[in-house]
Amino acid sequence: MLIIAHRGASGEYPENSILALEKAIEQGADGIEIDLQYHQPSGEFIVFHDRNLLRLTGKTGNINNYTLDELLKTSIGKNQHIITLAQAIALIPKKLILNLELKVSTSEQLLIETLMQKLQQVLNHAVSMKHITWPQLYISSFNHFLINYGKTLLPKANFAALIAHCPLNYATFSETMALASINQDIDCLNQELVSDIHRHGLTCWVFTVDDIDDIKQCLALNVDAIFTNFPQRTREIIRQI
Ligand code: G3P
Ligand code: CA
């Protein structure tokens, strides 16, 4: 079972920060998940979970109310600042999984096209500069419109549908979306669903798994990867089970 550091080693360091990414690598995570917000004024992606700055920075308002420069100077604690997607990619070693979660709630086609074309540009550049390879890139989202369109632009990347509800089966996802993975909320996990995902030829990744009983459940159900805020501690727990 692969260990994916959720927002980096975010249990101990500011989520989605350079420090959290570096610590996740140091702690031996198999992969790193980061959240991406599209900053409309600059057309850039920033590594940030929320649309609003308040929870993580104490500043008020939507990220689009600030310039990119202001955002990149914004503290997120422990001497860390908001970073761009390109800065995050530069830190990721070859062979480590990089899961980019696109936090975009719109179904507006024009915006989806604009931001996915930007993502295509950033990723094509990173691959051509040999900063990253297609096999290590996983793109996920709760927004399945975006996943569907993204696959046409980035056919060599792996795509995953994020699911936070409890579906009856995964036939729709496998047949209509040609995904690599289903990334499922731990709260809806059961043997039937994991088997169903596997039967459709997809891998099953589960979020967010920090608790020892949840780790045991994922191992017992043959889950392929878990997202955890504590990669080192989770690795140690798995070793001892
Ligand atoms: O990618 C899995 C998980 O990160 C999705 O939920 O809110 O932690 O981004 P959230
Ligand atoms: Ca996420």
From TrEMBL:
List the PROSITE patterns: GP_PDE
Q: Which GO terms describe its biological process?
A: lipid metabolic process
Q: What class of enzyme is it?
A: hydrolase
Report the InterPro entries cross-referenced here. Answer: GP_PDE_dom, PLC-like_Pdiesterase_TIM-brl
Asked if the keyword Manganese belongs to this entry, the reply reads: no
Q: Which residues form the GP-PDE domain?
A: 1-238
Q: Which UniProt keywords apply?
A: Hydrolase
Question: EC number(s)?
Answer: 3.1.4.46
Q: Which GO terms describe its molecular function?
A: glycerophosphodiester phosphodiesterase activity
Q: What is this protein called?
A: Glycerophosphoryl diester phosphodiesterase
